[in-house]
Every structure is written in C-alpha cells, then in structure tokens.
Design brief:
By secondary structure, the protein is an alpha/beta fold. It contains nine helices and five strands. The chain has helices at 2-5, 13-22, 25-29, 87-101, 118-127, 143-162, 166-179, 189-194, 215-224; strands at 51-57, 65-71, 77-82, 106-109, 130-133. It has a five-stranded mixed sheet with strand order 3-2-1-4-5, sandwiched between helices. α6 (143-162) packs across α7.
Length: 225
C-alpha cells in the first residue's frame, strides 16, 4: 500500500489492494501467523549509517548464506551472498560495504562467530568501530534484522511457489523494499539514506517534489517504535 500511495491515489485504492491481496495464494500462505511485541533498541542513531546491524540468513537452497547489513536509521538493507559464515568470507564483504557507504560508529551483531573472533576484533579496532554484542540466545534483541528475516523467508517461499530463481526474486524484493516508505519512518529507506526519491516500476503520475525530511521527526519515530 505504502509504495502505491507514494505514486498514485484514487478513491477506493486501499480496498482494491486488500481485495487483490486476499485473492493472492502466494500472499496468503506467506502471511505471518505469530506476531511478536516490538523490541526497543538501547541506543538510537541520530542519522544514517551510524548504527549498523549485521546478521546471517541461511543456509539457502544453494548451500550459501546471506550476510545482512542493515542501517537502523534509514532501514536500508544490503545483502551479500557468502559461501560460509567464516570470517575470511564475511569480513571482505563487510569491508566492501563500509568502503562504499562509510565507516559506522556502532556495529550490532550476535555474540557468536565470526563477529566475536580475532579478525573482526582487529577490524573493529582498526576503524574505531564500537562493537555491540546482543543478548545471547535472544535474536529479537537484534529486532530490525529479525523482522527482515521474515521478509527473506517469504522471498524464498515465493521463488519456490512460482518456480523462479531465488536470486531474481531477492533482487526484485530489494528494489521494491528500498523504494517503499517504511512503516516506522514513513520514508523509503533509499530516500532516507541517499536524500533523493527512488524510481520503481510504478508509473509516477504526479510531478516529483524535492526530497525533504525533518531529522527530528525521524528520530522521534524511531524512539516511538
């Protein structure tokens, strides 16, 4: 709904979307059956790419793993496919993203390998990154990553149901996710990170306005989450 509303509006739009979703077999079987209470973060970022969460999804059907890198301010997500979760695979991918988007102040991970190993420890120290390990055996402490895992499960389910390559389905999902206003911030992750409105497959039916946002409003929404 949020992505459609950002591109076009007409009376009855919400009902039309709900009717389409209710008749979609793939949507119905992928709907979550258990809802968890949201978790509060202990320290909230005041701007993009200050607090980053790292986590893994997998193994995939290909036997690989997905490294998730999530900016907790903009909710922008980067995904790298790695052969294993060993540090010699994961560290170069993390370094690649940090060299592209900048060095974060804080990185939040679970307390297991490879993030608690010597190689990552040296990496944190070299760049002056504060490593925050979440509560052991409680993945919901990394709430944003945990929520995104649910989306990834749907991606793989959709790929299986529709018999398409999961890499294609993942990239299609990421393109839509990054361009869709987030339920917490009300702004698309790519817009909040890059300060401009993203294009999508949906036709823009009105003239684009210069992208603007109030940083205090975003911080307040993150605190209210």
């Amino acid at each position: 709904k949020a992505l459609l509303r950002s591109k076009v509006y007409f009376p009855g739009l919400d009902k039309l979307i709900e009717a389409r979703l209710s008749s979609c077999y793939t949507c119905q079987i992928n709907s979550p059956t258990v809802q968890h209470e949201p978790c509060q973060t202990s320290e909230l970022p005041s701007g993009p790419w200050q607090l980053i969460a790292l986590d893994f999804y997998g193994p995939t059907e290909s036997g690989t793993y997905l490294l998730l890198i999530i900016d907790e301010y903009s909710r922008f997500v980067i995904i790298h496919e790695v052969n294993t979760t060993a540090s010699h695979y994961v560290l170069p991918k993390s370094h690649e993203s940090f060299s592209l988007f900048g060095i974060p102040q804080i990185v939040k991970t679970d307390n297991g390998p490879p993030f608690n190993g010597a190689e990552f420890g040296n990496f944190w120290n070299y760049y002056g990154i504060k490593h925050r390990a979440i509560t052991p055996y409680w993945p919901r402490a990394n709430a944003e990553a945990e929520r995104f895992m649910q989306n990834l499960r749907k991606v793989f389910q959709n790929a299986n149901i529709n018999q398409i390559d999961w890499h294609f389905e993942l990239n299609r999902f990421l393109a839509a996710y990054r361009a869709t206003p987030h339920s917490t911030t009300g702004i698309a992750p790519s817009s909040l990170l890059f300060k401009h409105e993203s294009c999508s497959r949906l036709i823009q039916l009105y003239e684009k306005r210069p992208f603007q946002f109030n940083n205090d409003d975003i911080s307040a929404k993150l605190n209210d989450e």
